[in-house]
Amino acid sequence: MTDQLWLWILLGVVVVVGGGAALLVPRTRRRRTDHLVDEHVDQDIEQDVEQDVEQGAGTTTVAPPETAVEPAPPALETPEPVAGRLIRLRDRLARSGSPLGARLLSVLSRDHLTEDDWDELEETLLLADIGAGPAEELLDALRTRVRVLGVRDPKTVRDLLREELLKVVDPSLDREVATTGPVGDDGARLPAVVLVVGVNGTGKTTTVGKLARVLVAEDRSVVLGAADTFRAAAADQLQTWGARVGVETVRSDRDGADPAAVAFDAVRRGKAEGTDVVLVDTAGRLQNKAGLMDELGKITRVITREAPLAEVLLVLDATTGQNGLNQARVFGEVAGVTGIVLTKLDGTARGGIVVAVQRELGVPVKLVGLGEGPDDLAPFDPEQFVDGLLG
Which end of the chain has fewer CB atoms surrounding its CB within 10 Å, N or C? Predict the structure, then answer.
């Protein structure tokens, strides 16, 4: 009897263990199968996304998810009028005292100008990044006029210096930013497409946002294209600038997307909506000429399928001196630059960079950044700038 009892207990244990194993095996197999299915789905999605980006799709103005709480729209700002912005810079420089202008006037007002004095003037100009050629040209003209006229009183010296500085800054250059596009084959006005280039760190994306404010202040309609897809914060930053003045931003919904696809969608959107100007921000991460040429060349080819380029603006940091000139040289060779935007020109110790970069590229400085404020971007006026240098 006892042996039979133990036999039944043993059989029960075997049944329980076997059934549990049978239940576990299918569950493990299901997990492995599900994992393989998920991998295939992920691969298919990735291929579809890459294909969409290559074809120019996948860019959109970002909106919050449907399930999210709709945020309150930002209050629209009214940009300051463009007229008079550079006068504000001149007044600011006059109050602070211009180190360049003050040193030049101090030397020129001495009773007897020796060779050492002229050497000091040349050193002052070179330290201001005006460049060797323009500095020599300016000093030769001053030598002749000071010797012939024999002037020493401060007002006359200042007038002479102002005239010669104005000549090297060159007021004859066309400094208007093209904001009117051509007429298309269908008779409709195409948007003026402005491509903004430059290395990271010069304030390029901020400049695009400020330029949008300049255009809005002039009653121009604008679309922004966030084609700097390699810095995650760049598109967010640009969209914030646009939202403040009611300007739409076309951007990618994924990091690392094709910049040319974003630029194409922005121009296409501007064309469809009859926009006056499309501003396209580009990446500045590329450090070699070949890579820069390839990327900017592709963006240009794709954009011009929809509308021709009206401007290629190069953003330079005014405080970088000769490094800025090297950047200007490379971009000038590969991007067909039509105008310069100088940022951080709210001091004049190195204000001569205006002259140097114009001579280097043969294109004018069209806009200058005057400070950190949202409306501290102004059309460049040679006379106001020279007056600011001289205090």
Answer: N
Paired with 369 in beta bridges are 377
Which residue is associated with the tokens 């000093």? 139
State pLDDT tens for residues 55-96. 544 455 543 333 344 455 567 888 887 877 777 766 665 555
Do strands 377-379 and 365-369 pair parallel, antiparallel, or not at all (unpaired)? antiparallel
Give the three-state DSSP class for 222.
strand
What is the DSSP secondary-structure string of 164-186? HHHHHH-TTS-------PPB-TT
Token pair in block for residue 5: 């009892």
Return all residues near 371 (Cβ < 8 A) that are at least 6 apart: 346
Closest to 156 (Cα-Cα) out of 146, 144, 148: 146
pTM over 0.85: no
How many Å is the Cα radius of gyration of the chain?
Answer: 31
- What is the total residue count of the chain? 391
Among candidates 46, 307, 351, which has minimal Cα distance to 195? 307
Q: What is the dihedral of CA 347, 352, 353, 356, to 10 degrees?
A: 170
